[in-house]
């Protein structure tokens, strides 16, 4: 379970949010909504352990965690604004590298399945620079599909995705929740998931 | 106030990924070498830069043989330093720009291990060609055989220090405007001892003193840098990400 206790964050001298408390149970998704500049990305980065909050604390599996804590680095899959793709490498090479960076190994059959599940099997050998914005996003989804991480932190995952891509994203998140994973998704557009699993948090 | 979930599922079992330091070093080293091979033109430019800088000095100063042999070792060292500096701004900046550095910092591998892998790759792509070319370029300066051997060994021990120290500077200047020139200002003074003992090796040969003292000092510097630089650079990367 991920818990945020009295979290506060500021950017420069302005306060983004304060006294923010919530928890995300296994099998649950929390959708963080809010206008531009309300601190959705900052919140996600704090939860991922990329930055320290200006107040409050983050608890993961019942233990307080500091930025870059090993327990977070073992359990979190963070999908930020930046795709972490190398233009010089092919889609497949990028995917293998990203999965290997999470300390996992992946066999070629699972890799093919993951690429096929995001309809990128024909682009597997193209350099990443030849991929469209949406295809880059889809590669990020393939990474999630291959990850065994229990906690997904996704920053605007629906950006640049077409309707099929959004449906795929929903399927991925639902499957993840059904396996007891949890997800925290910062988003503009509401993704309609089965109500039992999803809750909303509005930053304003 | 948020509603309690209707279905409470059991938490996903803790799954411990590989987090060994060596695997982290290997990941970063293999990836950076692969990237370097994909952009061979860039590699060629660095080597060519080194060769051209070394070849410019005789043209600009004197073709007189004895003087060239005297200043040769110093020129080779300064050119090695400049060549190493040329590619340093990109060492972390491209990973920072495309988000890979974030994922590296969030990886279960120790960040210092990943950073070490990048440092080794930097040395293999910029330092090693410099060492390999040094005997050839040294001939151009008329440096005699024994001195040339000493110079090459000194470069072999010294250039990794340049990569290690340079990486600290590259990490410290991440995300800064005009980071490249600031990087040079930060790194060049730190490299002064390496230059002194490196170029001093040849003087020691000429004076008949033996190279052991200079090489030991360089070796000691290398050991300190191997231990300290990955830690310092990874701390700087974390600060840049925060």
Description:
The complex is a heterodimer of chains A (204) and B (242). By secondary structure, chain A is α/β, with parallel strands linked by helices. Chain A is 32% helix and 27% strand. Chain A has helices at 40-48, 70-75, 91-101, 108-117, 133-146, 163-178; strands spanning 2-11, 14-24, 29-34, 55-60, 63-65, 76-79, 151-155, 182-186, 198-203. In chain A, strand 4 and strand 5 form a beta hairpin. In chain A, helix 4 packs across helix 5 (133-146). The longest helix of chain A is centred in the C-terminal third of the chain and has 16 residues, at 163-178. Chain B contains ten helices and no strands. Chain B has helices at 21-38, 40-60, 65-87, 89-98, 100-105, 111-140, 145-172, 179-190, 192-206, 212-241. The longest helix of chain B is centred in the middle third of the chain and has 30 residues, at 111-140. Chain B is elongated. The interface between A and B is large, with 51 and 39 residues.
Quick synopsis:
The complex is a heterodimer of chains A (204) and B (242). With 204 residues, chain A is α/β, with parallel strands linked by helices. Helices cover 32% and strands 27% of the residues of chain A.
Order of helices and strands of chain B: HHHHHHHHHH
Rg measurement of chain B, Å: 22 Å
Cα(first) to Cα(last) distance of chain B is: 30 Å
Q: Per CATH, what is the topology of chain A? A: Rossmann fold
Mean pLDDT metric of chain B: 90
Strands in their spatial order, largest beta sheet of chain A? 6-7-8-3-9
Topology, element by element:
The complex is a heterodimer of chains A (about 200) and B (about 240).
Chain A: E1 2-11, E2 14-24, E3 29-34, H1 40-48, E4 55-60, E5 63-65, H2 70-75, E6 76-79, H3 91-101, H4 108-117, H5 133-146, E7 151-155, H6 163-178, E8 182-186, E9 198-203
Chain B: H1 21-38, H2 40-60, H3 65-87, H4 89-98, H5 100-105, H6 111-140, H7 145-172, H8 179-190, H9 192-206, H10 212-241
Helix pairs in contact in B: 1-6, 2-3, 2-6, 3-6, 3-7, 3-9, 6-7, 6-10, 7-8, 7-9, 7-10, 9-10
């Amino acid at each position: 379970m991920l818990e945020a206790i009295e979290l506060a964050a500021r950017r420069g001298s302005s306060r983004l949010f304060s006294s923010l408390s919530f928890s995300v149970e296994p099998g649950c998704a929390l959708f963080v909504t809010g206008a531009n500049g309300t601190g959705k990305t900052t919140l996600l980065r704090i939860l991922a352990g990329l930055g320290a909050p200006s107040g409050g604390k983050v608890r993961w599996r019942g233990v307080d965690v500091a930025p870059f804590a090993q327990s977070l680095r073992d359990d979190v899959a963070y999908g930020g604004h930046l795709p972490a793709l190398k233009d010089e490498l092919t889609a497949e090479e990028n995917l293998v590298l990203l999965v290997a960076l999470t300390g996992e190994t992946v066999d070629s059959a699972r890799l093919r399945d993951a690429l096929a599940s995001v309809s990128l099997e024909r682009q597997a050998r193209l350099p990443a620079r030849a991929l469209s914005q949406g295809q880059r996003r889809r590669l990020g989804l393939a990474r999630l599909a291959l990850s065994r991480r229990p906690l997904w932190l996704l920053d605007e995952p629906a950006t640049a995705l077409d309707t099929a891509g959004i449906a795929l994203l929903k399927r991925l998140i639902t499957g993840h929740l059904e396996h007891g994973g949890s997800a925290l998704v910062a988003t503009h557009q509401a993704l309609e998931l089965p109500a039992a699993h999803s809750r909303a948090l509005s930053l304003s | 106030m948020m509603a309690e979930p209707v279905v409470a599922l059991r938490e996903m079992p803790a799954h411990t990924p590989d987090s060994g330091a060596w695997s982290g070093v290997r990941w970063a080293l293999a990836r950076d070498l692969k990237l370097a091979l994909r952009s061979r033109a860039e590699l060629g430019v660095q080597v060519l830069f080194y060769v051209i800088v070394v070849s410019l000095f005789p043209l600009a100063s004197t073709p007189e043989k004895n003087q060239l042999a005297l200043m040769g070792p110093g020129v080779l060292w300064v050119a090695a330093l400049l060549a190493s500096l040329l590619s340093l701004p990109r060492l972390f900046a491209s990973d920072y720009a495309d988000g890979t550095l974030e994922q590296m910092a969030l990886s279960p591998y120790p960040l210092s291990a990943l950073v070490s892998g990048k440092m080794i790759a930097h040395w293999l792509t910029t330092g090693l060609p410099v060492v390999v070319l040094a005997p050839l370029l040294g001939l151009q300066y008329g440096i005699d055989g024994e001195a040339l051997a000493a110079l090459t060994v000194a470069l072999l021990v010294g250039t990794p220090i340049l990569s290690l120290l340079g990486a600290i500077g590259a990490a410290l200047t991440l995300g800064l405007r005009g980071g490249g020139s600031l990087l040079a200002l930060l790194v060049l003074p730190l490299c002064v001892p390496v230059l002194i003992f490196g170029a001093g090796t040849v003087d020691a040969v000429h004076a008949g003193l033996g190279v052991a003292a200079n090489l030991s000092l360089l070796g000691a510097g290398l050991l300190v840098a191997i231990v300290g630089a990955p830690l310092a650079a990874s701390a700087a990367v974390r600060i840049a990400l925060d």
